[in-house]
Amino acid sequence: MYRPTLRSTLLSLSLLIAACRDSNVDAYRVPKEKDVALRDTVATATSTPATGPAGAPVAAPGAGMAGTPVATASGPGLSWTAPAAWQSKPLGAMRKGSYNITGEAGASADLSITAFPGAVGGEFANVNRWRGQLGLAPIAEADLTSAVTHLSQNGLTLTFVDLAGTEAANPQRMLGAMVPYDGAMWFFKLSGPDALVVATRPAFLEFLKTVKAPAPANP
Amino acid sequence: MKTILRDIRDFCVSLKLTVALLVLGMLLVFAATLDQTNLGIWGIQQKWFRSFVVFQDVRGVGLPIYPGGYLIGGLLLINLVAAHIDRFKFNWRKAGIFLTHAGLILLLVGELLSGLWQEDFNMRLSNGDTKNYAESYRFNELAITDTTDPSFDDVVTIPETLLARHESVQHPKLPFRVVIKAYYPNSLLQMRAADGPPSLATAGLGLGIVAAPQPVTYKQDESNTPTAYVEFTAPDASPGTFLVSTGLVEPQRFNYAGRSWKITLRAKRIYRPFSLTLLKFNHDSYAGTDIPKNFSSRIRITTPDGRDDREVLIYMNNPLRYAGLTFYQAGFENNDRTTILQVVRNPSWVLPYVACSLMALGLLGQFGIHLVGFVQKRRAKSFVAAVA
Q: Which CATH architecture fits A87-209?
């Protein structure tokens, strides 16, 4: 007899407590504060005021992607030594490193180094993501072992793939490597015209050998 | 009516209920510990302990599977209080038991209040930095800031919970309506391919970055990157749809209605009417070794009215308690140049201390009373034996 009463009381109490949780829109005034400082290597904002039609939104200075740091892996991160011939480029939104590799007849390939917190889906998902970028069909998880090569050096184990695109007119190729480090997944991706990427493969593999974790700091 | 009331009383004071609740409590801890592998420590606290009913997701439907910590703890509390009122007849010989149970009741109430009121934040300060706000570990907010005035910013914050519910917001301080077009609790930000599918965003960084939804992670060493596509609509020219994400560190800016705006999805902030400046972070090791000995932050507290301007030292096990907040030395980064302080707001923080003191005092008192009684009885026996 008393159960419905007890139950309804508890239900009302739970709703009351749930309503107490903060989910309100707040408005307040604070002293002017500086935005997050951009990294040294990132293009800084200019002081030119944005212009545009009256009342219409316009992109503000510094709003371009090149000027936008993205939360990637924190901490000192991995380091590497790139060949002198590879031209260092300004870092994009999510890049830890960025290089342009040029070949014959004006061909150029792009090497990007990025890092994201967590496992970012793991090896299997990332290999298929890269395959998708080249228009290749995804592989089954059972085929992953044969599709990748593991490279161990400097205490790191990198997962390396060599993927050739299917486009006959303008064949593309991608060399990718990923390595988990310090709670983040680091990606090294070289992509561009097939001939240039094939020619760069030995240098890329040598480059991967230079990837290393920072010397252990004092705890 | 009298029967119903008697039934309720019998149920509340029942010793069987006590035993049943204690068993349910043990099973709750066991099940929650197993579930920790799926949800992480914070997730299971919310799901198993800080809830009245534990719901399990079965093919998209939340099914109630077990009484939650609030229900079990709440019933235990009712049971304990009711049993005392119904059965307990106070006399000084039982004062210790009374005090111990009062402590237990206070402990249960304290845990309930902590669950309801406690909030954890963190404050990252590099040497020389001054901040008057702390940031939440768990909760995020969409901050829309009117930056037109050179001396101050007007901020409107929308909690992530409203983004998740796709609730539109029209605030008197905003000349536009905020409409949530999409929300992902976790996402992977990627460069958008030139020939990729069209973006939901019509302005800002979302034109070049795309967010791929990811499963929510509960692992201790991973964090989620919530992302939303937010449209600002107005009767005349709409500012457009922007991609906002905690993965984007730098705010995005636009001009609208003659004012300058910036938007960012960031950790929820609490502002306080005082500032903390990190004067020096110290990381000491034992001489000749790399073994850490102590981490400490020399902090300067200042209030705008000048009533407080002093230096304090926060180090391990020696937090700063100030203005209802407790600042613990939690960590450091950036090659020993940045300190991380855990900031806890818990108005009921003192209750567990009082509860434990009461219980200790009660147990000591009760044992003391029994000891004295026992010794007196023994003396009387030996006296009788000696006389007889």
A: 3-Layer(aba) Sandwich (3.40)
